[in-house]
Amino acid sequence: MSSTVVFEEAEQMQRVCGINDRNIPYLELLLGCELFVHGNSLTCEPSDGSPTDCERDFSQLMHRLKELAQRMDLIGEPEIFMEFQTMRCGLQDSSECKVPSESVEPAVSIMVAGKTVYPKSMRQRRFIRLMDESQIVFSIGPAGTGKTFLAIAHSLSDVLSGKKQKIILTRPVVEAGENLGFLPGDLAQKIGPYLRPLYDAMEYVVPPAIIRRLEENGSIEIAPLAYMRGRSLNNACVILDEAQNTTVEQMKMFLTRLGENSVAVITGDVTQIDLPRSRTSGLVHAGKILRGVKDIGFVEFNSRDVVRSRIVQRIIDAYDKDANGY
Q1: Is 281 exposed, middle or buried (0-12, 13-18, 19+ CB in 10 A)?
Q2: Please, are residues 119 and 125 in contact by the beta-carbon 8 Å criterion?
Q3: Higher-confidence residue: 125 or 88?
Q4: Domain with CATH 3.40.50.300 in the chain
Q5: Rounded to whole angstroms, what are the CA distances from 116 to 79, 151, 157, 182, 205?
Q6: Is residue 265 within 8 Å of residue 137, measured between CB atoms?
Q7: Neighbours of 15 (CB within 10 A)
Q8: How far apart are CA 45 and CA 25, in angstroms?
Q9: Statement: residue 272 has pLDDT above 80
Q10: Does the domain spanning 3-91 belong to CATH 3.30.420.270?
Q11: Side-chain-facing half-sphere of 270: CA atoms under 13 Å
Q12: The domain 101-321: what is its CATH number?
C-alpha cells in the first residue's frame, strides 16, 4: 500500500521537501517509511517493519506542512519536527498532552518589524495567546523551548508598534556554578553578559541597528533585579529571565513593581536552580500560590516543545529520567 500527496504549487512543494529535497531523509526518519518524489507529488511507501499507521501519519503531516508552507518561506527540521510532535500529541489522549487541542487553541502569530513569528507547538501558541490577554505570564520549561525568544519578539512588537514605551530586561545575577569575580565597566557592562541570551533573541528578530536605536532613545533598559526595589514600572514590557534563581522575596518585589499599562513575562527552568539548597525558588513558590489569580497566566513546556535541536530534547529526556541528578 502507498499514499500520495499532490502539491498544487511548485513553490509549496519546494518549501516542504526543502532545497534539493534535503528534508526528505528527515521526513523518512520521522515517519518510518520511504518517500519518492514524482513531479508535483510525493509518495509514501511503508518500508519493512514500519508501523501500520505510517501512511496515516504521512497524510496528516503533509497536510500540516502544506498549510505551513503557505505562511513560511523556509521549512527545516525544527519546523517539521514540531508539526510532527503537535500532530502526534493531537492523536493521543488529551490528558497526556495537557494542552488544549489544536481545534480549541486559536491560530496566533507575532508581527515585528515586518517579520512574522509563528509558534512551533501548541504550547508556544498558548504562550503567545496568554501574552496577548494577560498582564503577567509565567513561562516555565526546559532550555530550547522558545520561552525567551517569544517573550522578546512579543515585547519588540509592542514597543515598535507604539503599544508600549519601553522594554525592561532583568534577571537575578546568580552564576551557574562559577564565581566570575568583579566585572569591569559601568552597570550596563557588568550586567550585559548575564543578559546576552536576551540580546541574542533580539538580534534574531530585528537588525542590530534597530536595537542600538532603541537603546539610545531609552526604549530598551537593562535593570538588575536588585535595583528594582522602590520603582514603579509604567507603560513597559518587563521580561524577567532565569526566574528560577529568584528568591521568594525577590519575586514578590518584582511582581509588585508593575504600574499602569505594564505587562511582565517571567521565564525560567525549575530544573536549573542555582540558589543555595536552603533557599526556596521564587518561581517555584509563585507557581504554587498565583495559579488561578485573574490576569496571571501560566504555560509549562516540556521536552516535546524543544525547538533548538533534537539532541537537546534527548539530553533533557535523559536528565528527566535521572531525577536524582548525578
Answers
A1: buried
A2: yes
A3: 125
A4: 101-321
A5: 15, 14, 10, 40, 9
A6: yes
A7: 24
A8: 14
A9: yes
A10: no
A11: 17
A12: 3.40.50.300
